[in-house]
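Narrative progress, year one. The postdoctoral researcher (J.K.) led the effort to move from monomer predictions toward full complexes, under supervision of the PI. The following entry was the first complex the group processed end to end, covering 369 residues in total.
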Amino acid sequence: MIPGPPRTAVGTPIAAIANAVYHATGKRIRDLPITLDKLL
Amino acid sequence: MQPFQYVRADSPDQAVAAARGGDAGYIAGGTTLVDLMRLEVMRPRAVIDITGLALTAIEDLGGGAVQIGALATNTEVAYHPLITGRFPALSEALLSGASPQLRNMATVGGNLLQRTRCPYFRDGVSPCHKRVPGSGCAALDGYTRSHAVLGTSPRCIATHPSDMCVALVALDAIIHTQGPQGDRAIPIADFHTLPGDHPEIETVLAPGELVTRVELPATPFAARSRYTKVRDRASFSFALASAAIALDLSGGPGGGTIRDARIAIGGLATKPWRARDAERVLIGQPATLDVFRRASAIALDGAAPRTDNAFKIELGRRTVLRALQRGAS
């Protein structure tokens, strides 16, 4: 079991990737995984 | 793995003779056969080693045509100047597949006979008409994201996995074989069969018939050919959709009239798929985005999706469009 603070590392990159996808495609994907079919 | 007899052949004649007993598999790079034998999905009685045969050459046939030996590796073909210069779609298709290690082992002959990646075929236990005819098809109501939407049958929706074969369809390749009945030449479009009632049969090859070489004829469209592949990862991944296109244009880059065209589709069909109706939309028309859109819009006509793969129809259209745009630029 990982204690609390290190777990911030789990969510942050996901949000960053989702933001990058939004920047690249204009599509806000709010459920994981971000797959190609959601971007069509 | 099931026990099997191992035979090393020194000539195509010997190899074909050794396969006469039936239920034999030729082994070259082994990148498909060894995997599937370990999984016990394929259980040949005999494995005939053909790696010693003199079928590795890539030769200029003159007049623009090229011949590739069945034992030439994917790597050798992909980087050969005769291929990169005259048949770029074939080079692009080969380099988009697998990994460098696999491309160094895998051969052109084996690539033609690649088996599907359908997980229900490969798991060795699910009902699968391709693995055990008559047993059923777990894919029909299973997870179908990777499955075919074109050329399917009520008994099989497994996708043909090869990139190379899609490029060969766009290049009008001819497959030369040697079998118990002698030699023959098979146009690539006739080489693979639709699953229909017999998904266990995937090509027109007779038992023991050996692929010896692939001929790439000189065509006015081969030089302007491209392969575009869309997948979940940037490398080492099978196509969700791919397109090989070839264009013969009367003008320079980005302009002129389309004199002839080829469109082949991968990742979406049970065999390497030629979109002839879409080709007809292009011929005689100017090479413009609008014309390419009209052709790609009908390239997937006849597609029949299952639960998880309907998105691949639109993905396929866009992949064809992207490939055509790349070809014209």
